[in-house]
Amino acid sequence: MKLATWNINGARARLPNLLAWLRAAKPDVALLQEIKCEDDKFPRLEVEELGYNIETHGQKGFNGVAILSKSRLEDVERGLPGDKDDAQARYIEATVGTLRVASLYLPNGNPAPSEKFDYKLAWMDRLHDRARALLAAEAAFVLAGDYNICPNDRDVYDPQAWENDALCRPESRQRFRKTLYLGLIDAFRALHPDETAYTYWDYQAGAWRKNQGLRIDHLLLSPLAADRLNACEIDRDVRGHEEAGAKASDHVPIWCELAEKGRALPI
DNA sequence: ATGGTAGGAAGCCTA
């Protein structure tokens, strides 16, 4: 199965781009972030016409996440556990076949330090606890989305210029590593250990033209999911695609291909 | 070069 994640930066403004990409890339599961609308405003009919089931966790104006799946979605959970007062729509989880998937939009956290940075770090601690609970249940799972984290300097076009940004701060990277050290793998980095590749280019200052990007969108796989990992790639060209007059998102899709069943280990 | 661009809301905020 092909599982993709994409921060589309507005589901309604980006509908032509979303439909064109779904037709071309044909993911079995697509995890979306920043739909920027309430659940009843999501362009449901147009996406359903392409054969997708849809579950959203939206809010007015900002944030908002969704899961699209060609097969049935079960046991949908909205919101990241651990703070019942958190009103921001940044997390949705569901089961597709035997796989648990989450679409997550991790807080940006700038400026650092600030209340926003504290919220980011607390959110990362909650994500760590959620990953630990899923591991304890021995589930095959993928936690994917816009992590707003550059894991290493290799993932930043200008590490020195970004060293005090919330996306690169040691506190942010430490928490990302802590979750990886539970036993999850960063699918792209596992298959492309030395490659410099980005998933985001700012709209401003000609960042795309100058290839001044960041790798901040990630697919984290549990051991049972990682055993099935065949490929992981970034749809980089999408950054330059206008569709029917709609500008590109500042993020591009990243996807992985998972074998349907566990493979024998190549010993 | 301390600007630049975009989406959604609504007469700014978030990224």
Describe the protein's architecture and organization.
The chain is of the alpha+beta class. It has a single domain (2-258), classed as Endonuclease/exonuclease/phosphatase (Deoxyribonuclease I, Chain A, 4-Layer Sandwich). It has seven helices and 14 strands. It has helices at 15-25, 44-48, 115-136, 159-162, 170-180, 187-191, 223-226; strands at 2-7, 29-33, 53-57, 65-69, 73-78, 91-96, 99-105, 140-146, 185-186, 200-201, 213-214, 217-221, 229-234, 254-258. A six-stranded mixed β-sheet has the order 3-4-2-1-14-13. Strands 5-6-7-8-12-9 form a six-stranded mixed β-sheet. Helix 3 (115-136) runs parallel beside helix 5 (170-180). It is globular. The protein starts with a strand and ends in a 9-residue tail after the last strand. The mean pLDDT is 96. The protein binds one DNA strand of 15 nucleotides through residues 9-10, 12-14, 34, 36-37, 60-63, 108, 110, 148, 202-207, 247, 249-250.
